[in-house]
Amino acid sequence: MTTLDRPTLPPGPRAPKFVQTYRFVRQPQSSLDVYFKKYGEAFTADLYGMGTVVVISDPGAIEALFTGPAETIVTGESNARLFESFLGTYSLLNLDGPRHRRKRRLLMPPFHGQRMALYGSIIREITAQEMARWRTGAPFAIQHATQNITLEVMLRVVFGVDDLARRTRLRDAILHFIAGSYRPEAVVMAIRPAQIDLGPWSPWGRVLRTRGEVYRQIREALVDRRATGTTGRDDILSLLLDARDEDGNPMSDDELCDDLFTLLLVGHETTAATLAWGFWGVLGRPDVVAALRKEQRDLFGDGPVDLARLPELAYLDAVVKEILRRYPVTDGAARLLKVPTRLGRYYFPAGVMVAASSWLTHTNPNYWRDPHAFTPERFLAARPAPFSFLPFGGGLRTCIGAALASYEMKIVLLDVLRRADLRLPAGYAPRVLRRTITLSPSEGVPVVLERPIARG
Length: 456
Ligand code: HEM
Prior knowledge:
The chain has helices spanning 17-26, 30-39, 59-67, 76-87, 97-107, 116-131, 142-158, 164-180, 203-228, 236-242, 253-283, 286-300, 314-326, 358-362, 377-381, 402-419; strands spanning 42-47, 51-56, 73-74, 140-141, 332-337, 341-343, 346-348, 353-357, 422-423, 432-435, 438-441, 446-449.
């Protein structure tokens, strides 16, 4: 009998559930490496809050997972197991079916590739403002800087919050929420059964209260916008305020808050963490920095890049892709099987979650040569095998911010490397830490600015 005759769970770790959950939380990549070595491209794990999860890194099965029928291979219900308690019931991530389709259509326009040209000069201005604060000498965490940039981009460019005082309060509230996720006890964010509010000093109580302050600020931003009006505006806040359902009703404030909180958090944390990993990868390779600078100089001399010509920078594009491959900041993309389902060479039973692991797929030696090396050139030499590269997930649920994230990363890398000489302090090597929704580098990648920033 083959694995395709009847639905079967592949073998996997037999450690007690709490041990497996601990490893998932604390050793998000190294534990997967161990399982991959032992069980191969599909194995079954058992995790608190998520139940039975089959982790796959076989592109054939991933293709089937991403392109199969959305009615029986569902995403929202699966995401909700991890994210509902803090992203909210109405968050796009946690929806399925027609509600998901409608919301996604509504949210997409500001993230469409063609819109990027409008955002470029503001991203550049925000990056310059951040760099103006850097000082030579003492190391600083580059993730702190990239986070300031990506959060400001979300607030100004996507949300269209023009009022400086309002922006500052919203930014402070979200940074306070994220700072809390650095605390060791904030692992409760990844363990659903431990999410019990035992007051302001309890781990989950603290998460709820800092998140509550972000929601309060978002509600106030909604009040402001209702007062000033949405006419002629095409930012997310205005789009959502103007949206009406089939019966002509506007969205409730609870729904608006979940959507806005999701975009604010997901839209900047992921890009900030990827950029931080990116600086770690790039600064560790002076030849890559030199090649990036050369490409830029050959096309544009010593001045800034003309952003309309960004697509001509092929090496930069390869660097960004390699950062996304080598340092995936999410676990990947998961789906819940509502019926027994064939995925490539596997046949899995109903009721299990199937998670396409970006880490294991991106480091699968069957598809990537020397997968642990940071080698941008691999993306110049050949296209990746189908479904072996999934930084933004896939199918109907592909990340809506993929174009914005890549565009933003390119501008930040270009402008920082053109104007700043950064180095990594001796002896630093990052560990992979869970932080809100990302896998971030420990200490946020400390860097040292070697000499004052060159003039723009
Ligand atoms: C480097 C940065 C980013 C990475 C690595 C990333 C990664 C991902 C991944 C893996 C998914 C799951 C896709 C799936 O289930 O197939 C996702 C979904 C999503 N991302 Fe991103 N993302 C990034 C940036 C952004 C930005 C900038 C935004 C918003 C502006 C955003 C908003 C979303 C939303 C709303 C979803 C849910 C889509 C849906 O369920 O229909 N992401 N992202």
